[in-house]
Design brief:
Elements: H1 2-20, E1 28-31, E2 38-42, E3 50-51, E4 61-67, E5 69-70, E6 77-78, E7 95-100, E8 107-109, E9 123-127, E10 130-131, E11 144-145, E12 147-151, E13 154-155, E14 167-168, E15 179-183, E16 205-209, H2 218-221, E17 229-231, E18 253-255, E19 261-262, H3 269-277, E20 280-282, E21 285-289, E22 293-295
Parallel strand pairs: 2-4, 3-6, 4-7, 5-8, 7-9, 8-10, 9-12, 10-13, 11-14, 12-15, 15-16, 16-17, 17-18, 18-20, 19-21
Antiparallel strand pairs: 1-2, 21-22
The structure holds 2-acetamido-2-deoxy-beta-D-glucopyranose.
2-acetamido-2-deoxy-beta-D-glucopyranose binds at residues 170, 176-178, 204-205.
Length: 309
């Protein structure tokens, strides 16, 4: 009897080990340190398409690295449409990260069908890529995300309709952010394409840090009426238009660190506006002209020369 039990136990252990192993497509590796592991797939070693059933456990967190070239439309991801959020480990958001090879010439080519069937993705990040084109509605197959982050690289070919069909909103993920971020990215032209962000009517945080903005206009943000946090750090503009925050009634935190403000009194309209509308400005405002000085948006600390009524 004891013999039989031991043999049974042995079989059981073997089965358990077999089932807990991961299955990884060639070119990918699996880091199982966390309860929901991260698959990292090396673009230079991958055979496309990446097939959903080639991953076990399911690829809730997936990163493609060393990208330099095409993510073929309709041939990059296969079978992912059967991935249901009901099967997620709710301790993590589902995430997809595309990271280009760290070389000046590295490029990413995506098409309108690259992300077909990828509606399961809740966080999307594109890192260090020279993205030559963001075609019309390129992310619409992802439908909605908690965050879209474009960081590093160059966002060439961004157009008014690039983000059409994608929503950014609080999803039920841990530390939900409702965030659009573009940071440390070259934005050719120095301005946002008209209406680029206008589809993001539920977005709560917008970060446009160090993207070389030479100006920003009210219409860039006028549809983002749920906004609570706006960061415009380290850009090239020196003034902001006096209607920039019109309609953004929930805005409560503004970060303009690293802006070389032109502090003529008219240009400082936003200091009084911030007080009246309950907007905290982190780190205050550093004037570049007429002289270098720090002004804080407090009622009497604006500047002796600019007393607002
Ligand atoms: C939604 O996102 C904001 C940050 O943008 C966060 O402060 C808030 O807690 C989130 N709400 C939920 C319900 O997760």
């Amino acid at each position: 009897m004891a013999m039989h039990f031991k043999r049974f136990l042995g079989i059981f252990v073997v089965c358990f080990l077999t089932f807990s192993e991961s299955t990884v497509p060639s070119g990918c590796s699996y880091d199982s340190t966390d309860s929901v592991g991260i698959y990292t797939c090396d673009f230079s070693q991958l055979g496309f398409p990446l097939v959903y059933y080639g991953f076990s456990p399911a690829p809730q967190r997936l990163k493609l690295k060393n990208i330099n070239g095409n993510l073929p439309g309709s041939g990059t991801f296969s079978g992912f449409s059967s991935y249901s959020s009901a099967s997620f480990d709710t301790n993590y958001a589902s995430s997809l990260e595309l990271e280009c090879i760290t070389s000046a010439a590295a490029s990413l080519t995506i098409t309108g069908t690259t992300f077909s069937g990828m509606g399961y993705v809740q966080q999307l990040k594109i890192k260090n890529c020279y993205t030559s084109s963001f075609p019309t509605s390129v992310f619409s197959n992802i439908i909605e995300v908690d965050s879209l982050i474009i960081t590093g690289g160059t966002a060439a070919g961004l157009a008014s309709d690039s983000f059409t069909g994608l929503s950014i909103k609080n999803l039920s993920v841990p530390n939900s952010q409702s965030l659009f971020e573009m940071s440390n990215t070259v934005l050719p032209g120095g301005t946002l394409p008209a209406n680029l962000l206008s589809g993001f009517t539920d977005v709560k945080q917008i970060v446009l840090d160090n993207v070389g903005l030479t100006s920003i206009s009210a219409s860039d943000l006028s549809s983002n009426t749920m906004l609570t946090y706006l960061s415009l750090k380290h850009n090239s503009f020196t003034t902001i238009p006096s209607d920039l925050f019109t309609g953004l009634d929930g805005l409560n935190l503004l970060d303009v660190t690293g802006i070389d403000w032109d502090c003529s009194c008219d240009n400082l309209w936003f200091l009084e506006y911030a007080i009246t509308n309950g907007i905290e400005i982190t780190e205050g405002v550093i004037c570049n002209t007429p002289t270098s000085y720090l002004v804080k948006p407090s009622k009497n600390g604006v500047s002796d020369a600019c007393q607002f009524s």
